[in-house]
């Protein structure tokens, strides 16, 4: 707020009034919740959670909104450990645990029920009076403030994370059984080719389009892909700014404007539609957190563990390990078309330096800490770009595997990142900003395709503007699926938007 309203003249008075309004609201809110059994637990919990949120908001300039909470709830332990550091512990101890202990030790004397009720009524009344008087007295300022600077409310701690938590619960949890609506049950595939189709769909992680050299980035981050017959899509936007939103949304029949978590879990997705044809064998392999609900009705394999993933040097299982054994899987699916989805660890931050083997450390020096705010812009970019070099290598290995089966199948690779990533531009790091205020770095995603049959899609205008909304129809069109839920106008391979 200080960056918008300089602390001088009337602005100083306005700033003080905002502080009083927020304080009065908190007094009002927590007075309603307070009782002999709830006051201390609520305040202690509030202090500890607010210390956490304060660290992430101050360090990465992220917003703790509903989707950020959803993303956090779906993050696994390994990813969470990447965020822990000394500075976070200092925040937690000095802003959370010590104040919470102080609250625990303070004696509170409770009066009779009638006296407590009257005291609470008095406190609530005074708090509301302060709020109303200030809003009326500075009505012109607050009218402008609420209309023109809505994003400021995302940075109020603890009020906004409390609101977001309530919103998350309301949008996530059902009072009864969740019934999944079948879609595309009419789906059929009419075979017109002697060869079956084999597609490997790679779901990338945090790969922003402007750091792909295929899109004109000054550094060579795609040295292997540029040697292949790649169809590059430079103008693709994501459905969300976090994995928890983008991954289920990109496979959903709903576009970004219509998608919501509840719609997603209540409806089948494009993989289900392909399965309805009984002519496509589908396998999901995951080296990230999980499929975010996309593959719950399909064969799913986690490759996060060394017990399954045999390529886990330097303490982290690599995306390359997901390729082991795929030849055997393909050999066992001779009667069907095949779709294999590989969910990458990719460029998951903030510990980009962990996302690649040291042999890929071409750009130096690198930021070797999860406290990105302590690193130079150059070292952050270096670590991030080295991770992209590993993704380039991984995708080249996918293509090599597909080439080995090109005599038997019509082979295709589709790579689409789930979202982008902020690397410190404007003081913003990582991802997960509310979409309307997210920078282009978080919503403009890297997307490429490779086709074993050269020239088959040379007529495609890949420079058009597409989004993850197109993936649903592109996958159906790729397999020649006929169904009422397919829209040819949304198929990227039809050359139309």
How would you portray this structure in words?
The chain is an alpha/beta fold. Strand 9 and strand 10 form a beta hairpin. The chain has helices at residues 10-33, 39-60, 66-73, 77-81, 86-105, 113-137, 139-148, 159-172, 243-251, 261-265, 270-276, 326-331, 377-403, 440-443, 471-478; strands spanning 188-189, 196-204, 230-232, 236-237, 280-286, 300-302, 337-343, 409-417, 422-423, 429-430, 444-445, 447-451, 466-467, 481-482. It contains 15 helices and 14 strands. Helix 2 packs antiparallel against helix 5 (86-105). 38% of the residues are buried. A 7-stranded mixed sheet has the order 3-12-8-2-7-5-6, sandwiched between helices.
List the helices and strands and how they pair.
Blueprint: H1 10-33, H2 39-60, H3 66-73, H4 77-81, H5 86-105, H6 113-137, H7 139-148, H8 159-172, E1 188-189, E2 196-204, E3 230-232, E4 236-237, H9 243-251, H10 261-265, H11 270-276, E5 280-286, E6 300-302, H12 326-331, E7 337-343, H13 377-403, E8 409-417, E9 422-423, E10 429-430, H14 440-443, E11 444-445, E12 447-451, E13 466-467, H15 471-478, E14 481-482
Parallel strand pairs: 2-7, 2-8, 4-13, 5-6, 5-7
Antiparallel strand pairs: 1-14, 3-12, 4-11, 8-12, 9-10
Helix pairs in contact: 1-6, 2-5, 3-8
């Amino acid at each position: 707020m200080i960056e918008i309203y300089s602390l001088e003249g009337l602005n100083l008075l306005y700033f003080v009034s905002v502080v009083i309004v927020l304080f009065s609201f908190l007094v009002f809110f927590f007075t309603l919740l307070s009782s002999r059994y709830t006051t201390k637990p609520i305040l202690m919990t509030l202090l500890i959670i607010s210390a956490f949120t304060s660290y992430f908001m101050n360090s990465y300039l992220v917003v703790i909104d509903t989707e950020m909470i959803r993303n956090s709830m779906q993050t696994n332990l390994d990813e969470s450990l990447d965020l822990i550091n000394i500075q976070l512990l200092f925040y937690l101890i000095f802003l959370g645990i010590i104040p919470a202990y102080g609250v625990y030790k303070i004696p509170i004397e409770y009066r009779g029920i009638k006296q407590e009720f009257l005291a609470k009524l008095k406190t609530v009344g005074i708090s509301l009076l302060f709020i109303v008087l200030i809003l009326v007295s500075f009505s012109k300022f607050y009218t402008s403030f609420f209309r023109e600077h809505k994003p400021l409310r995302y940075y109020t701690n603890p009020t906004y994370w409390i609101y977001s938590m309530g919103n998350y619960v309301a949008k996530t949890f059902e009072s009864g059984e969740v019934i999944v609506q079948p879609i595309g049950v009419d789906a059929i595939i009419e075979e017109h080719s002697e060869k079956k189709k084999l597609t490997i769909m790679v779901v990338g992680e945090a790969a922003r389009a402007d750091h792909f050299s295929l899109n004109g980035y000054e550094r060579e981050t795609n040295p292997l892909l540029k040697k292949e017959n790649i169809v590059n899509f430079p103008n693709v936007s994501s459905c969300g700014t976090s994995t928890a939103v983008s991954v289920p949304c990109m496979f959903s029949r709903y576009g970004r404007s219509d998608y919501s978590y509840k719609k997603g879990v209540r409806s089948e997705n494009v993989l289900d539609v392909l399965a309805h044809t009984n002519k496509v064998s589908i396998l999901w392999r995951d080296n990230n957190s999980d499929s975010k609900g996309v593959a719950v009705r399909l064969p799913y394999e986690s490759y996060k563990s060394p017990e399954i993933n045999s390529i886990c040097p330097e303490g982290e299982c690599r995306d390359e390990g997901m390729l082991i054994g795929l030849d055997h899987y393909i050999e066992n699916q001779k009667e069907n078309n095949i779709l294999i989805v590989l969910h990458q660890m990719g460029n998951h931050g903030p510990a980009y330096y962990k996302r690649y083997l040291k042999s890929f450390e071409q750009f130096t020096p690198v930021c070797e800490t999860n406290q990105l705010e302590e690193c130079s812009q150059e070292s952050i970019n270096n670590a991030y770009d080295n991770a992209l070099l590993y993704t380039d290598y991984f995708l080249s290995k996918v293509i090599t595997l597909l080439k080995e089966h090109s005599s038997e199948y019509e082979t295709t690779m589709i790579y689409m990142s789930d979202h982008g990533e902020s690397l410190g531009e404007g003081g913003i790091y990582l991802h997960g900003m509310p979409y309307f205020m997210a920078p282009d770095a978080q919503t403009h995603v890297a997307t490429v395709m490779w086709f074993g049959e050269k020239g088959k899609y040379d007529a495609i205008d890949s420079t058009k503007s597409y989004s993850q909304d197109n993936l649903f129809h592109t996958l159906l069109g790729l397999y020649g699926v006929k169904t009422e839920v397919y829209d040819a106008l949304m198929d990227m391979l039809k050359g139309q938007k």
